[in-house]
């Protein structure tokens, strides 16, 4: 796991490009503490940069940017979990290797199969690959979108990096995207492809950008398969297949030449990963847990139950309000973009780093794929509400309760309205008042947000799963996990998002994947090893006592911070009266914080 950056430019001098890439990489140094490298090709006006976090082949042989056969160059962020199988195939075809990395396998595979090889990669990845023979550079991002890859393209330049802060390190006067506060206050995050910077976008997951050094033009193409067709199957077959795929995924994700462990929160997902990892790993597995002084947030008894069952090397750390106060400024500094969900990830990765781990498995993806959220029970409610005339739905924005206000989103013809009904933050009338802009501008921006046609073809829980996976998880959980883990030089791996696990889940009929019991398929598949005490209890997500802690966080409580905005001050008052969720005020605070 690493950080990458690069510049291709017809207008900058070589020294300016090298200096720029150096600054970009230095801005991301926390995510690659084990080494730095860059490579210049003056003939193609190109500079690649790399910050390394060593996990496979810890020697200097793994240094990047890496060359293959004097023709191909790559700067790579991620892990390819099936690289050993791919390597065997390539060796059989006569290809030779100089090191033990998965990086070299990407280069040899591209030489053997061209861009068709990208779809054979199973893992999390974002990389830039230069083919000097064809004079083309490819930017490539994995099909699940686990790793970020941002880019800016204009008539004369192409810039790319793993973090937004790299672009402002290159150009401190880079213009802001003036629409980002609208997206942030509406969604609670900035949805892809948009960022806080003008003209800087996420490369879409499962796509690659081809830059032609001769024509100076680029195009983006999808390399992953479309949403798979449903395959009829009985319950026993579904359980057996899911267990086989997840077992194999965890085994793949444990490949590392550096210390590795599992985040153990005490819920179904992390408990399963810990149990499977213990079965698949030859050595005693490391488990890491977070707890709190506030007993209503503690999951310690469930964490200890699993740790004792598998006899793991277990670390439990208590995070206090004092810790929050001590580290909140650093957490802000480590946020690559505004976030309402990254603080917990920052702390759990800090504990992992403090205990000598460089890679940790996380349960992200299980809730989204297997119906773990309350939203999965609301598809019928959405269906009923959408039968109400649109002009009446629009009036819901005047209702006093935030959740009721969100009914107004169902008046949108764009299905993004359904997502915003489920998880949106503020309605356009409130956002407009907070930002001092017309409500109509906010509503138009949201209704124009483009979704793939595949979502229109889905119904019921499958549709909710699409929203949770491709909007919430994609833009909130994965993004926050990436930059908050990299802030500590820790790689987070997500076996539930293994390509085979995801494909197998999406091919299941609705009634096999979802039921009244959240994640029933996973529970049934592992009923022999997963204790009933873990799954037979009310769902309690991994949450911090933020409502209590932010109630003491004076900068957010200071009325002067909100520049006299009546709407912001009214919401601040609601928070102080314990009538507003902390994340809602925190979102406003961040908008005003960045505007200073």
TrEMBL record:
InterPro entries: Asn_synth_AEB, Asn_synthase, ASN_synthetase/amidase, AsnB_N, GATase_2_dom, Ntn_hydrolases_N, Rossmann-like_a/b/a_fold. The keyword Ligase applies. The keyword ATP-binding applies. Residues 2-214 form the Glutamine amidotransferase type-2 domain. Its EC number is 6.3.5.4. Pathway: Amino-acid biosynthesis; L-asparagine biosynthesis; L-asparagine from L-aspartate (L-Gln route): step 1/1. Keywords: ATP-binding, Glutamine amidotransferase, Ligase, Nucleotide-binding. GO terms for molecular function: asparagine synthase (glutamine-hydrolyzing) activity. It catalyses: L-aspartate + L-glutamine + ATP + H2O = L-asparagine + L-glutamate + AMP + diphosphate + H(+). CDD domains: Asn_synthase_B_C, AsnB. It comes from the Bacteria. Belongs to the asparagine synthetase family. This is asparagine synthase (glutamine-hydrolyzing). It comes from Pedobacter helvus.
């Amino acid at each position: 796991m690493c950080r990458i950056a690069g510049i291709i430019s017809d207008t900058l001098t070589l020294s300016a490009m090298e200096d720029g890439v150096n600054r970009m990489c230095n801005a991301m140094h926390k995510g690659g503490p084990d080494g730095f490298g860059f490579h210049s090709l003056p003939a193609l006006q190109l500079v690649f940069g790399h910050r390394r976090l060593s996990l496979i082949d810890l020697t200097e042989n793994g240094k990047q940017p890496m060359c293959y056969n004097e023709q191909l160059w790559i700067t790579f962020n991620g892990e390819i979990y099936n690289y050993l199988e791919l390597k065997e195939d390539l060796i059989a075809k006569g290809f030779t290797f100089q090191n033990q990395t998965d990086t070299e396998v990407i280069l040899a595979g591209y030489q053997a199969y061209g861009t068709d090889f990208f779809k054979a990669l199973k893992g999390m990845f974002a990389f830039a690959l230069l083919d000097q023979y064809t004079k083309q550079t490819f930017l490539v991002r994995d099909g699940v979108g686990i790793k970020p890859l941002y880019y800016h393209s204009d008539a004369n330049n192409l810039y790319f990096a793993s973090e937004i802060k790299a672009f402002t390190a290159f150009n401190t006067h880079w213009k802001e995207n003036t629409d980002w506060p609208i997206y942030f206050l509406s969604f609670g995050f900035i949805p892809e492809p948009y960022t806080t910077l003008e003209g800087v976008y996420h490369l879409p997951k499962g796509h690659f950008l081809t830059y032609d050094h001769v024509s100076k033009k680029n195009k983006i193409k999808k390399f992953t398969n479309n949403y798979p067709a449903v395959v009829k199957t009985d319950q026993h077959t579904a359980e057996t297949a899911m267990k086989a795929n997840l077992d194999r995924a965890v085994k793949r994700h444990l490949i590392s030449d550096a210390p590795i462990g599992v985040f153990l929160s005490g819920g179904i997902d992390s408990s399963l990963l810990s149990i499977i990892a213990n079965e698949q790993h030859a050595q005693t597995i490391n488990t890491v847990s977070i707890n709190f002084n506030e007993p209503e947030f503690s999951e310690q008894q469930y964490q200890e139950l699993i740790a004792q069952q598998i006899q793991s090397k277990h670390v439990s750390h208590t995070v206090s309000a004092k810790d929050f106060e001590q580290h909140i400024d650093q957490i802000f500094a480590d946020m690559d973009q505004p976030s309402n969900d990254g603080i917990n990830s920052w702390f759990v990765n800090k504990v992992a780093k403090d205990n000598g781990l460089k890679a940790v498995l996380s349960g992200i993806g299980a809730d989204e794929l297997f119906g773990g959220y309350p939203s999965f029970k609301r598809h019928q409610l959405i269906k009923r509400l959408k039968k109400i005339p649109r002009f009446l739905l629009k009036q819901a924005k005047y209702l006093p309760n935030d959740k009721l206000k969100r009914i107004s989103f169902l008046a949108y013809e764009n299905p993004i309205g359904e997502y915003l009904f489920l998880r949106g933050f503020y309605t356009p009338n409130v956002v407009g008042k907070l930002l001092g802009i017309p409500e109509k501008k906010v509503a138009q921006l949201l209704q124009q947000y483009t979704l793939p046609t595949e979502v229109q073809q889905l119904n019921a829980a499958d549709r909710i799963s699409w929203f949770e996976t491709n909007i919430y998880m994609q833009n909130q959980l994965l993004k926050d996990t990436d930059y908050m883990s990299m802030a500590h030089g820790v790689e987070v791996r997500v076996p539930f998002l293994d390509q085979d696990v995801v494909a197998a889940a999406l091919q299941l009929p609705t009634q096999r994947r979802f039921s009244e019991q959240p994640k029933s398929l996973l529970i049934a598949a592992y009923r022999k090893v997963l204790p009933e005490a873990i799954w037979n209890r009310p769902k309690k997500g991994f949450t911090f006592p933020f409502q209590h802690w932010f109630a003491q966080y004076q900068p957010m409580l200071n009325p002067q911070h909100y520049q006299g905005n009546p709407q912001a001050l009214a919401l601040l008052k609601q928070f102080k009266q314990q009538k507003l969720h902390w994340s809602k005020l925190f979102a406003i605070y961040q908008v005003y914080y960045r505007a200073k």
